[in-house]
């Protein structure tokens, strides 16, 4: 049996191990160790490579980016910035068709720019937006689906943990990945807004329990407006934080790691100024930051070990040769990768997909002349769609569990996210066809 055959069998074994419930980090370690041992018939070499990978895998200043951005996101979450952002967006958009749906997308877009985690957005806006949308006559399932659908913006609009993980795995600039995510993220947010207005105008019964009453409420000019001073007060912290972090990053004044540090400190000041951070909450935030960061760093070490095993097996080179022989070309390869990831998204979480696919596909994309920043955005958008597709759909399950309403089933929320999936597929095709959408500012 050739090393290439062994490598292919081990990739299949990895997917099986993850599907049966083994944590992805342990599955990566197990498959990589077994692969090196079998292919080289030397258990000592496998232990030696494991030792070198663990020692050098994250021994870089760049990896401090992860805990710092995680800390910033958690501090922003406990300071109720998401709630205030939604309240301002709701007030400004109250007379727009599907105004609260558009407000949810707008608030999620801003919230994503300082958290970078879709699950955090889904949990926050389920508590904030869904009750308000239901009070104004929106169907509960549609409200929940809007929160789940728009929450995926956190995975694309920088700073995003998925973009950081991809940057590390593909060995490309994390700052460059953040810049590449700007236009696709805005396209996605704009597409969601257009879709919500269109669906509400054409199929009001899908969105509203009583379309006529909801229209009268929307046009009621006697509804009390939020004072301008209060509105500015609610927006100032989040706007300053976005300008501080992303402005410093995009102008080159900060490195990604420095931006994470400045952002975490800024979020800490925001939480203190709002008196939403006591000693108990601070301890919980610090503990959660440690747990999340260590988990991600362990995954990256495991992925590095897995990547070395793939190199020994010659799998990336073999697949590159196969792709070249089939005459797919760069465009065909991008479509092929996107289709595989869409299928994997139905059964695996987003991080697992990146850890399995990027070490194999990134070298092939580079050899075919595909810009790795463009390739990364295509991969991340395809992975995002998996957050909404059954049976896994982690964003949908997060919303369902947070909502805890027996009258709203998981199936109803999945159905309500279908228009969002359609928009995401359109943006995915657009980014594949127009690489400049991701690379215009690079």
TrEMBL record:
<protein>
    <recommendedName>
        <fullName>TRAP transporter large permease protein</fullName>
    </recommendedName>
</protein>
<comment type="subunit">
    <text>The complex comprises the extracytoplasmic solute receptor protein and the two transmembrane proteins.</text>
</comment>
<keyword id="KW-0997">Cell inner membrane</keyword>
<feature type="transmembrane region" description="Helical">
    <location>
        <begin position="289"/>
        <end position="307"/>
    </location>
</feature>
<dbReference type="Pfam" id="PF06808">
    <property type="entry name" value="DctM"/>
</dbReference>
<feature type="transmembrane region" description="Helical">
    <location>
        <begin position="142"/>
        <end position="169"/>
    </location>
</feature>
<feature type="transmembrane region" description="Helical">
    <location>
        <begin position="259"/>
        <end position="277"/>
    </location>
</feature>
<dbReference type="InterPro" id="IPR004681">
    <property type="entry name" value="TRAP_DctM"/>
</dbReference>
<feature type="transmembrane region" description="Helical">
    <location>
        <begin position="372"/>
        <end position="393"/>
    </location>
</feature>
<keyword id="KW-0472">Membrane</keyword>
<comment type="function">
    <text>Part of the tripartite ATP-independent periplasmic (TRAP) transport system.</text>
</comment>
<feature type="transmembrane region" description="Helical">
    <location>
        <begin position="6"/>
        <end position="38"/>
    </location>
</feature>
<keyword id="KW-1133">Transmembrane helix</keyword>
<comment type="similarity">
    <text>Belongs to the TRAP transporter large permease family.</text>
</comment>
<feature type="transmembrane region" description="Helical">
    <location>
        <begin position="175"/>
        <end position="208"/>
    </location>
</feature>
<dbReference type="GO" id="GO:0022857">
    <property type="term" value="F:transmembrane transporter activity"/>
</dbReference>
<feature type="transmembrane region" description="Helical">
    <location>
        <begin position="331"/>
        <end position="360"/>
    </location>
</feature>
<feature type="transmembrane region" description="Helical">
    <location>
        <begin position="235"/>
        <end position="253"/>
    </location>
</feature>
<dbReference type="GO" id="GO:0005886">
    <property type="term" value="C:plasma membrane"/>
</dbReference>
<keyword id="KW-0812">Transmembrane</keyword>
<dbReference type="InterPro" id="IPR010656">
    <property type="entry name" value="DctM"/>
</dbReference>
<keyword id="KW-0813">Transport</keyword>
<keyword id="KW-1003">Cell membrane</keyword>
<feature type="transmembrane region" description="Helical">
    <location>
        <begin position="413"/>
        <end position="441"/>
    </location>
</feature>
<feature type="transmembrane region" description="Helical">
    <location>
        <begin position="110"/>
        <end position="130"/>
    </location>
</feature>
<feature type="transmembrane region" description="Helical">
    <location>
        <begin position="58"/>
        <end position="78"/>
    </location>
</feature>
<feature type="domain" description="TRAP C4-dicarboxylate transport system permease DctM subunit">
    <location>
        <begin position="12"/>
        <end position="436"/>
    </location>
</feature>
């Amino acid at each position: 049996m050739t090393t290439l055959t062994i490598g292919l069998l081990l990739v299949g074994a990895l997917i099986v191990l993850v599907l049966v419930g083994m944590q992805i980090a342990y599955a990566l370690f197990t498959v990589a160790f077994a692969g090196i041992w079998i292919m080289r018939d030397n258990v000592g070499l496998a232990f030696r490579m494991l030792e070198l990978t663990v020692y050098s895998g994250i021994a870089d200043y760049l990896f401090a980016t992860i805990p710092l951005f995680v800390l910033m996101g958690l501090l922003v979450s406990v300071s109720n910035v998401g709630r205030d952002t939604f309240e301002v967006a709701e007030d400004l958009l109250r007379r727009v068709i599907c105004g609260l749906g558009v407000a949810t997308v707008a608030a999620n877009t801003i919230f994503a720019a300082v958290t970078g985690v879709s699950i955090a957005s889904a949990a926050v806006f389920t508590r904030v937006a869904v009750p308000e949308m239901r009070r104004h006559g929106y169907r509960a399932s549609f409200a929940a689906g809007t929160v789940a659908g728009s929450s995926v913006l956190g995975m694309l609009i920088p700073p995003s943990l998925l973009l950081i993980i991809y940057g590390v795995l593909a060995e490309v600039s994390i700052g460059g990945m953040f810049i590449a995510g700007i236009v696709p993220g805005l396209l996605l947010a704009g597409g969601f807004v257009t879709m919500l207005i269109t669906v509400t105008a054409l199929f009001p019964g899908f969105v509203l329990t009583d379309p006529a009453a909801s229209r009268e409420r929307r046009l009621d000019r006697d509804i009390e407006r939020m004072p301008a001073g209060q509105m500015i007060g609610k927006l100032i912290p989040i706007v300053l934080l976005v300008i501080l972090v992303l402005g410093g990053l995009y102008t080159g004044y900060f490195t990604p790691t420095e931006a994470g540090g400045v952002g975490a400190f800024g979020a800490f000041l925001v939480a203190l100024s709002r008196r939403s951070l006591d000693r108990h909450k601070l301890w919980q935030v610090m503990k959660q930051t440690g747990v999340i960061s260590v988990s991600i760093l362990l995954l990256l070490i495991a992925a590095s070990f897995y990547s070395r095993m793939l190199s020994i097996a010659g799998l990336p080179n073999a697949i590159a040769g196969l792709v070249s022989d089939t005459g797919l070309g760069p465009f065909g390869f991008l479509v092929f990768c996107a289709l595989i990831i869409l299928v994997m998204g139905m059964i695996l979480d987003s991080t697992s997909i990146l850890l399995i696919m990027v070490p194999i596909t990134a070298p092939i994309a580079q050899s075919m002349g595909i810009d790795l920043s463009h390739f990364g955005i295509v991969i991340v958008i395809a992975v995002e769609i998996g957050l909404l597709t059954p049976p896994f759909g982690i964003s949908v399950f997060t919303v369902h569990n947070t909502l805890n309403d027996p009258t709203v089933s998981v199936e109803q929320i999945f159905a309500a996210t279908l228009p969002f999936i359609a928009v995401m597929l359109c943006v995915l095709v657009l980014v594949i066809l127009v690489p400049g959408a991701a690379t215009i500012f690079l």
